[in-house]
Amino acid sequence: FILAIVLISMLHVGDLGLEHREEINDQEKFWTSTLRGLQVLKSDKAMYYLTISIVFLAMVYLPTESVVLPKYFSDIDDPRGLGYVLSSMALGGIATTLAYPKLVKHFKKRSIVIGALAATSLAMIPMTFFPPLGLFVLAGFLLGLGWGPMNPLMNSMVQQRVAPHIQGRVFGVQTSLFYASGPIGMFVTGVSVDAFGVRPVYIAAVSILIVFQLFIMFLPDLHDLDREAQY
Predict the structure, then answer these.
(1) What pLDDT score does 93 carry?
(2) CB atoms within 10 A of CB 154
(3) What is the pTM for the complete model shown?
């Protein structure tokens, strides 16, 4: 926490908020503000579909590390294996999150999104077979690599494409969706695993996710991700 305080104190914050202070309606009611943020998000089709894709991915990714993997490794009595796989997922995510500034300099944003969705899909396919530990660790690392750049990409897009005085409302809608998707996915996965077992449930969840990701990847609206920044 001390290190976090020191680092955040060194963060430079621009004055766009002050410049647009007169445009901010502090008296706007909660639901009015929320609906306004949702309207702004839906008006930008590329950002809207990207948000939905991250929400659906979170509904499978988060239950994978919190429900599916703990259940599987508990059944085979291998807590060390669980630690290896979760660590590989975390390392992959950290790697591409930190590498995002480099990625966005060398690749189009649409290419990053398609690559991330493809990586998560390719990683989850072997994981549904619950392979030997070595392959499990590699798949987990690839899954983390795919998950890592999504959040920094989403955050930067809001800052570049949404007017500063409305960004908080859009961030609020996105954050609410993200925070809701994980617990919903965990609850549904947990109940389903208890009823049907971990393997069939995970296969079904990953299959649905892959079909949805393929749909997102071929949407023409994704080309708009590479539009010039407005702010």
Answers:
(1) 95
(2) 18
(3) 0.84
